[in-house]
Design goal:
Pathway: Lipid metabolism; fatty acid biosynthesis. With 528 residues, the chain is α/β, with parallel strands linked by helices. Helix content is 44%, strand content 14%. The radius of gyration is 26 Å and the shape is globular.
Length: 528
């Protein structure tokens, strides 16, 4: 089936290009050996046997490799035992190493200089120092005094996706600019020293990582850019007390700070994501899928209309007292009523037009009888115009929920599961690691679309849709271990590094031209 006319349906105004990206690869000695860690806990009685068993069960189902994800030496039990450091100096050291590492790799790839950056946006949820992380990068790289910098904090895992909306707005307001977006989550201040199970989980999932992304609206960069931003949708359901309290950084009963993860995290994330998907679906579904959605909507309205007429005429089933007999509730309905089941997942929401889905309230819940008479349309995003999916790797259950909502098979979930396996939950950087994985292992063909999905505290949900402007296949160092030496050598020869060379050659030619012009003007002045 044919795809939609993107030029008519793009929702982000003037074109925003993703020129390139780089993700940080931590040193190999930072790898966490979970078997060693559990043995250390038992030998030193760091936790009670019940607490150790709980953490082992959680880790076994987490989706993380037992020996690949990374933590800095002052948190890694193989280096520090049970004597973790969480002071500000250690937090700054982690943030500085990861963020500058990602930015330097990006500058090396693109051939740009720090002075070429017009807009700088950083995001880190827990670690928000003074001076800011944006100031740290301005100082580290000697950026221009007029660089427009913003340091975002407290916005959680979703902000690697959601903040693209802010960057797009900034680029709309400032033509002919380059924007640098740097994402990380410093694990040092987020480490939890207590025994509250709702906070211990984050020690098992969150790991070190960072990403640097170059966005631009400069027309001259269009030819070398990888992707164009086609859709950017963000949703915030924080007006709900349940959503607002699902994730928070706070002290436990003993006064020890940690990230609290409520049991309703996946349910609340699903409700927010449902709203975002309803708004983006009309722009990525095929014409056939849109026709199915319209037909389902018409059938639903007709069914509800007929039901209303029967009720008005008293045609419903009634007992001796003339009252309508309701069908006995199902076991699932009873569990939901008692709080044992989450709210409806995003996969059950109708696909509607942007105009009818622009609110922030969740889709209305239906009784079992009404949903069976007029089932809502459930779009299969794997059959849509989107080819690649970059999902927040928050945990195995999170990815299972996202995959179910989008109706994706394991092949489409593969890049995000690989991020979780090899790097853990790297918070706002996770979807960028997934993009680097896609570019390394599968590659992206010109014209293909990629959907970037983020969820996080607040609760916030974001969906970005990108379209490849050219064929993209390169070996990112963070994923080189997935390829054989022969593949790395072959792809290394195919990587287009001419952009950086052309950029430097252009600077050289401009300098020579200006020098020649100065000499000509000087000679003319002497003759005069």
């Amino acid at each position: 089936m044919s795809s939609l006319p993107w030029s008519l349906l793009s929702g982000c105004g003037p074109r925003v290009f993703l020129v390139d990206l780089a993700v940080f690869k931590p040193p190999q000695e930072w790898r966490v050996d979970q078997d060693y860690t559990h043995k250390l806990w038992r030998d030193t009685q760091r936790y009670s046997p019940e607490e150790i068993d709980f953490q082992e069960r959680v880790y076994a189902r987490s989706g993380l490799s037992r020996d690949r994800a990374h933590l800095p030496p002052w948190l890694n039990p193989q280096h520090c035992g049970n004597d973790q450091r969480t002071d500000l100096a250690a937090a700054e050291a982690e943030a500085r190493l990861t963020m500058t590492g990602a930015v330097q790799a990006l500058l090396d790839k693109t051939g740009l200089r720090p002075s070429d950056i017009d807009i700088l946006v950083t995001t880190c949820s827990i670690y928000c120092p003074t001076p800011s992380l944006a100031s740290l990068l301005v100082n580290a790289f000697g950026m221009r005094p007029d660089v427009q910098s913003y340091s975002l904090g407290g916005m959680g895992c979703a902000n690697g996706v959601v903040a693209v909306n802010l960057l797009a707005d900034l680029l709309k307001a400032r033509p002919n600019c380059n924007a640098l977006f740097v994402t990380t989550e410093a694990t040092t201040p987020a480490y939890y020293r207590g025994n509250d199970r709702s906070r211990l989980v984050t020690n098992l999932l969150f790991r070190t990582g960072a990403a640097a992304v170059l966005l631009s609206n400069k027309p001259r960069l269009a030819a070398r850019a990888k992707y164009a931003l086609r859709q950017c949708v963000r949703v915030h359901t924080g007006a709900s007390a349940e959503a607002y309290g699902a994730i928070h950084y706070s002290p436990d009963a003993s006064g020890l700070n940690g990230i609290f993860l409520g049991k309703n995290v996946v349910a609340e994330a699903s409700r927010g994501l449902a709203l975002a998907l309803r708004r983006v679906a009309p722009h990525v579904l095929t014409w056939g899928q849109l026709a199915e959605a319209v037909a389902a909507e018409v059938r639903g309205k007709m069914g509800r209309g007929q039901c209303g007429k029967r009720e008005a005429s008293g045609g419903g089933k009634s007992g001796s007292g003339g009252e309508e007999k309701q069908a006995p509730p199902t076991a699932a309905a009873m569990e939901a009523r008692a709080g044992g089941s989450p709210p409806p997942s995003p996969s059950s929401s109708r696909c509607t037009s942007p105009a009818s889905s622009g609110g922030v309230s969740p889709p209305p819940r239906r009784s079992p009888s009404s949903s069976s008479s007029s089932p809502s349309y459930r779009p299969n995003f794997q059959q849509s115009t989107v080819r690649h999916f970059l999902l927040h790797a928050g945990g195995a259950k999170v990815l299972d929920g996202l995959g179910e909502a989008l109706q994706l098979d394991e092949g489409r979930l593969g890049p995000s599961r690989a991020v979780l396996r090899d790097y853990g939950n790297v918070s706002s950087s996770s979807t960028w690691y997934a993009l680097a994985h896609v570019e390394t292992e599968a590659g992206v063909r010109a014209g293909e679309r990629l959907m970037q999905v983020g969820v996080g505290s607040g609760m916030k949900s974001g969906v970005n849709v990108w379209q490849a402007l050219r064929d993209v296949r390169e070996v990112h160092p963070a994923w080189a271990h997935l390829l054989s030496p022969e593949q790395r050598q072959r792809l290394g020869r195919q990587v287009d590094v001419s952009h950086a060379l052309r950029h430097m050659m252009g600077r050289l030619m401009l300098a020579l031209a200006l020098t020649a012009l100065a000499l000509v003007l000087g000679a003319a002045g002497l003759r005069a």
